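Problem 12. The chain below contains 141 residues. Write out its predicted structure in token notation.
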Amino acid sequence: MHKLAIVYYSGTGNTEIMANAIAASAKKFGTEVQILTADNFGPDSIDLYDSIAFGCPSMGVENLEEEVFEPMFSSIESKLKGKPIALFGSYGWGEGQWMEDWEERVKADGAILLYSPIIAQEKPDLVALGKCTLLGEILGK
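Solution.
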């Protein structure tokens, strides 16, 4: 059975909504899904899953959240080469540069992006949730 981890940080609940939508969709295909907060994931967790969806909102000057998510993500980057992953998150201001930077970062790490990163401004709208559902289908198959 395919094992999927959805690892996220959510300060306002918006990125959590996206994580839950991805999980609900992936579960429809019989995928074993674990939803984990960033503080419950680390380098030893990578090999436990066939694929991983990472979710983090934009913080500060369009950066990944710096106290919990960024340290976790930095600690696992060396293990992402060849790993099928996806990226998602929400933002309140800016243009989405944090996600473009994050996408380039994981490509440089050698990760396999399974779907274009998904971003939602503030609370995910129907378009963003539709993309999360599609991502869940891709991750669930």
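Discussion. The longest helix spans residues 126-140. Students who got a different answer should revisit the alignment rule from Section 12.3.
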